[in-house]
């Protein structure tokens, strides 16, 4: 098992909120290979600071690079043979309804038949395909160690729930509209084949793109919006991109492209998740304030929260309580697995518990009660 561990120094938790809020003054994107960056450095330089980076040559040893690609081309035959009968989610980039791309489902083999045609009349994009969940024993890729601290997929795996691990296959010019990721999570994405152009906006910058009704454009266009801070990043074949929390982004496939990505949350961005959940909830409560004195008010707010944000308060609490209890166990039993092939070092566990403690305190302050027993057990472990 691979151990994720950080320097002792992170145990000095006093500046916890400062770290969260610190912003990078200069928007440039670092590039390095996995060999050049250790877990601890990635944790400090990119996850805690919440800034993007590119990691070079990540996927060359992955099984999918050998099997899905043949002589520098997508191996259509192999993909049809292995996955042809699976049903996959597909977006139609040319069909827009209610400010988003129309979605449908089709058999993988039909999508591949479409993709291999030299003349395509449509612009279809296979997105958010949970292939790893459907084929858990198919080890077509390996999670890079720097992306190993993944509470979201750890929780999903432990509880047999839908995961946040996806495969994307898109022809040249297919695109993903401007968005920020689910729950304010991070994402990482690796091009197994092809190239992407990413446009990323530092948090808050997207506000300048909103129209008078508060709607964002489907795609940002430099000419219509001069003077907006943004980063343009070309992600080459084999590269991983780290997309930080709350950074809006849009993507264009510059060639036919296959990528694998995860959305992930951990102790470095759990406070972002909490803050955006809370902000969403406050907005909803405000919007339906006229129902405030009805008995359904609370449930209505939670229903809307679930549909807009993807998760309600009860599930959020369940999520952090699960991780909290697991970390308390891990503190005693060093070998307990976390996510994928990873286990955690003591400093990492303590750091996780510290952030959980911070969020649980916030929940209690807002009267979204967390058991005091659990809080005081964590407190004892942290401050003994
Ligand atoms: O590759 C794409 O088209 C979009 C991926 C994305 O939005 C992400 O990884 O967060
Ligand atoms: Fe995204």
From TrEMBL:
Gene Ontology molecular function terms on file:
2-oxoglutarate-dependent dioxygenase activity; sequence-specific DNA binding
PROSITE patterns assigned to the protein according to its UniProt record, in alphabetical order: JMJC
Domain JmjC residue range list: 132-281
Recorded catalytic reaction(s): these are:
L-lysyl-[protein] + 2-oxoglutarate + O2 = 4-hydroxy-L-lysyl-[protein] + succinate + CO2
> What are the annotated GO cellular component locations?
cytoplasm; nucleus
- Top-rank taxon of the source lineage equals Eukaryota
* Pfam families in the cross-refs: Cupin_8
Biological processes per GO annotation: positive regulation of translational termination
* InterPro entries xrefs: Cupin_8, JmjC_dom, JMJD6_ArgDemeth/LysHydrox
Family, per the entry? Belongs to the JMJD6 family.
PANTHER family from the entry? 2-OXOGLUTARATE AND IRON-DEPENDENT OXYGENASE JMJD4, ARGININE DEMETHYLASE AND LYSYL-HYDROXYLASE JMJD
Protein name, as recorded: Jumonji domain-containing protein 4
**Top-down, what is the taxonomic lineage of the species of origin?**
Eukaryota, Metazoa, Ecdysozoa, Arthropoda, Hexapoda
């Amino acid at each position: 098992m691979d151990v994720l561990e950080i320097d002792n120094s992170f145990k000095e938790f006093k500046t916890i909120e400062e770290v969260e809020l610190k912003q990078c003054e200069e928007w440039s994107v670092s590039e390095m290979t996995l060999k050049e960056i250790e877990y601890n450095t990635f944790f400090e330089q990119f996850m805690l600071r919440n800034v993007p980076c590119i990691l070079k040559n990540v996927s060359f040893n992955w099984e999918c690079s050998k099997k899905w690609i043949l002589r520098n081309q997508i191996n259509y035959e192999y993909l049809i043979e292995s996955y042809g009968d699976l049903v996959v989610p597909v977006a139609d980039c040319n069909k827009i309804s209610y400010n988003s791309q129309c979605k449908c489902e089709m058999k993988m083999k039909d999508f591949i038949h479409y993709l291999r045609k030299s003349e395509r009349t449509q612009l279809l994009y296979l997105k958010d395909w949970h292939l790893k969940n459907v084929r858990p024993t198919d080890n077509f890729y390996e999670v890079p160690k720097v992306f190993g601290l993944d509470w979201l997929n750890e929780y999903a795996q432990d509880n047999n729930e839908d995961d946040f691990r996806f495969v994307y296959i898109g022809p040249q010019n297919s695109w993903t509209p401007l968005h920020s990721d689910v729950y304010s999570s991070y994402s990482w994405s690796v091009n197994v084949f092809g190239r992407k152009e990413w446009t990323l906006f530092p948090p808050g910058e997207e506000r300048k793109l909103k129209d008078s009704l508060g709607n964002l454009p489907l795609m940002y266009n430099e000419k219509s919006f001069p003077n907006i801070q943004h980063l343009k990043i070309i992600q080459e074949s084999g590269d991983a991109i780290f997309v930080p929390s709350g950074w809006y982004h849009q993507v264009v496939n510059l060639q036919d492209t296959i990528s694998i990505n995860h959305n992930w949350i951990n102790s470095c961005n759990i406070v972002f998740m909490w803050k955006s959940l809370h902000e969403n909830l406050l907005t909803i409560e405000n919007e339906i304030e006229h129902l405030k004195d009805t008995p359904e008010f609370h449930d209505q707010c939670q229903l809307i929260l679930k549909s807009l944000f993807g998760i309600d308060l009860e599930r959020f609490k369940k999520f952090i309580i699960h991780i909290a209890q697991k970390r308390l166990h891990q503190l005693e039993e060093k070998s307990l697995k976390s996510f994928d092939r990873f286990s955690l070092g003591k400093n990492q566990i303590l750091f996780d518990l510290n952030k959980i403690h911070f969020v649980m305190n916030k929940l209690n302050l807002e009267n979204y009660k967390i058991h005091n027993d659990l809080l005081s057990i964590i407190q004892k472990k942290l401050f003994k």
